[in-house]
Amino acid sequence: MTISTVRQDDGFVKVTPTSTESGMIELSLSEQKNASDNQGVVRIREDGRVFLN
């Protein structure tokens, strides 16, 4: 599964994992000022691995 985050003003989004529990992940979305650290896509594989990019 792929989740793409998009701001209404076409700005950049930073995705940050904020806490994890057994089998759970919580993500925080915030405004990113520059493109160098742009993250806006969360990929979840069938085996449960999560990738942020």
Structural write-up:
The chain has 53 residues and is mainly β. The protein has one domain (2-52). The chain contains no helices and five strands. It has strands at residues 2-4, 12-21, 24-32, 41-44, 50-52. The chain has a three-stranded antiparallel β-sheet, with no helix packed on it. A two-stranded antiparallel sheet has the order 2-3. Strand 2 and strand 3 form a beta hairpin. The protein is globular and about 35 Å long. The relative contact order is 0.33. The model has no long low-confidence stretch (mean pLDDT 81).
Q: Please, what is the average pLDDT?
A: 81
Strand order of the biggest β-sheet: 1-4-5
Number of domain modules: 1
SSE arrangement, N to C = EEEEE
Major sheet size, sense and barrel closure: 3 strands, antiparallel
Q: Helix segment count?
A: 0
Give the overall form.
globular
- Total number of beta strands: 5
Strand proportion, as a percent range, falls in over 45%
**End-to-end separation:** 14 Å
Helix content: under 10%
- The helix/strand class is mainly beta
From the alpha carbons, calculate the radius of gyration and give it in angstroms: 12 Å
Q: Poorly predicted ranges (pLDDT <50, ≥5 residues)? A: none
